[in-house]
Amino acid sequence: MIQPSSMYQPLLLRGLKIDPNEPFQFDVMIDGGDQVENVEDPTLNQNTQRLVRYFLAGLTIDQEDFWVNLSPTESDRIITDEFARTEMGRDLLAQDYLLKQISASLMYPETELGQSFWTKVYREAYDKYGVTELPVNSFHKVWVVPDLANVYSDEFGVYVAEARMKVLLEEEYKASIDHSPQSIDDQRLSTMDHGLSTVLQTIIIPAIEHEVNEGKHFAKLRQIYHALILSTWYRQHLKQSILNQVYSNHNKVQGIDHADPATADHIY
Question: Between the CA of residue 5 and those of 11, 94, 103, 142, what are the distances in Å?
Fold first, then answer.
């Protein structure tokens, strides 16, 4: 069981200052949040270096490889080998595991939120569809995706003013790309799923979204998100930079890797 956490602002990579004459040198702007009480904090440099390694992973890993997958039916597709070697890949996979834990915990029927959820689910299923047992595929995975990000930039650098994420049900996430024809039974099941998902969206999804954007559980996810926003900006706006040309999308993870290559399998 994972209980909802308190609001927490972690150490964040807020921005970059770029020197056009020194392509391998840039300054990072750090927001200490609730994590750093003073600049003499002995952990400040260590944690800042981790955020910088997130940024560098965001540059060097191919953008098509920024995914993790803990599906129980796809043990051969957890994470790409290169991404798994980075701290970002490891930490993102651990956050996905935590996402599944808290999703299940929030729906636990002996909590107030879970009891409210299941009461409404079964009432909805009986009132609209006349059933008291639900198909096992009525509840899908949840996805965390980018939402609003306000970024300010000039010739000297970039600053992330605001960055939020949103939580979607799998059916929402895949709706725009899944156009395969459905049988009559599939349509009926889809209609039922939609009704039950509405309850999920009303009660559980807002609680998860609050955790993702405000809670302590997903502090590392927000740190990764900020680093990815900045690395994406760097890719797009400094395409002629020598760092972009020799490092971006080249999967050069030496120096930003971690000690245990089997971590992904352990988390799975």
Answer: 17, 17, 13, 19
